[in-house]
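Entry 14. Two folds queued back to back today. First construct below, sequence then structure tokens.
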Amino acid sequence: MKVAIYGAGAIGGWMGMKLAQAGHGVSVIARGATLDAVRQHGLRLIEGGVIYAEQVKASDKPADLGAQELLLIAVKAPAMASVAAQVAPLIGPHTIVLTAMNGVPWWFCDGLGGAFAGQRLKSIDADGKIAAAIPTAQTVGCVVHASCLVDAPGVIRHHQGNGLIVGEASGQPSARVERLTAMLRAAGFNATMSAQIQRDVWFKLWGNMTMNPVSAITGATTDRILGDELVRGFVTNIMLEAKEIGARFGIPIDQAPDDRHAVTLKLGAMKTSMLQDVRAGKAVELDALVGAVRELGQLTGVPTPHTDALLGLARLHASTLGLYPKQ
């Protein structure tokens, strides 16, 4: 396939590298030091102690690459408005847009039923420009269960995990997602097709929405967060609010917060992606991870005092550091 990667960071670079290794025609949209590194050395991946490299086309101008068969968007949520403004040259009438991002995406409500179907979340896409630029009918969601780090511009280190869950943004199964899943498996991913990708997005978010911002505020790894009785109780209450919200829009979670805590603790002293972003001076994804949950609480009539407190503290912390727009 003709594939473009928009966002050659940890996840985008890893997926782009695997697709290039599988023989697909991969191009990368990048800027600055990453663009220079990819042009000079190709994409590089460190995996199992071995360094792999693949030459790919790279540009900072989407028009240089033209319409793609598959466009993988793997950027942090704060960058999506900028991506939406530039992405048009990459999307033809048959392009599949695969979004591999954390948190609640702009298309999330398009796959829900009843009164929630097609709702636009102001915390994610306030003016509707992202949805206008990237049609839901061409969008496939991807939930990533893998840990990767950027060692240097254009150099990705794969740490653990290989799972991808893919599904139509519309929430319905399709033949094209079956084909896409098979293609991803052939490229070496543990890819599965979701019957409703919103369920997988929500379940992953159920843990990320707490561990990420609490770690960003405190600088603590996940084991220390859950090892503090008071903080663990705070996190549990936030998760219970989110669980009730999901149940009201048709995505119940059949676990208790302690079940997810046990899974998180098995990962050891993990530094979350948001903590890494804060330490690197990068914008944080609070709207997609926490703000959207608060908004969904308002839409479903679920009180969210603990979620509100986390959002308030996290955005105050981030805005003080210049990593989130000031309130």
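Second construct, same run, same settings:
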Amino acid sequence: MDGTTADPGDGAGAYAEECRVAVRAAEDAGALLRSRFHGAFRVDTKGAHGDVVTELDLLAEELLTRRLAQRFPSDRILAEEGGGRPGAPGARRTWLVDPLDGSNNVVIGLPAYVVGIALCVDDEPVLGVVHDPVAGRTWRAVHGAGAYGPAGRLWSPRRPAAAARPVIGWTQGHGLAPGDPAARALKDGLESGARRVLQLWAPLLTWSLLACGLIDGFVGYRAEEIDLPAGVLLATEAGVEVRALDGGPFVPRIGRPDTDRGYVAARPEVLPYLLGLVARSAPLG
């Protein structure tokens, strides 16, 4: 596994220790997931719209929450499958843990999944870590200190003005009803002006591709909260701009309703084009 080429705390400033712990925990959880990917594991459904949770989600979540709680016992932990910790009364620091972003992919044998961890202080992200167990890549970002990957600091390259139409990632919240008219209209509008719209069902993997400059933009409608802070931080620290669907400011604070979790993310030279596609789609609910 490649991992990171430098100490995980490099460039992390005041959060160097948190970064080291999160990176190592994510990579260990990734090793667990990779070792079990081709074996038999239990799969259950959750929610009203057919989402799934696997035995691997639960095993990875237990590893991650245990590591974080041991090192930072006063911090609150929110975890995707409910295995979090309350932390000390009045705790200002919250860890968000997505132990297996891409569970539906894993169930059908598609190797497109990642492990995600974020740290928020006063509900705003200050640290994000994403680990890809399949390729052995780890990305990390600290607010104001940049984003880093296996080859060093990330800086999403400029897109040539004469380039073809953009490649865009897309995600929508699991809680949306099938055929939700606003989501369908928005996605149709994007497809009309994009070279390709990718729906990976692993938002943190999509954020990582955007931060690395491998895709041009990412649009989310009523996105899930648990993976949003780490993804937004990784992308913005790599030079990506993120706006609300109406073009206004987007604040990735936790605890907001899903109606405030719609976004358009892209490099600065691509952003106006994507915002135009969104504006020309049907009114959003």
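Quick look at the second one. The first helix runs from residue 16 to 36. The chain has seven helices and 14 strands.
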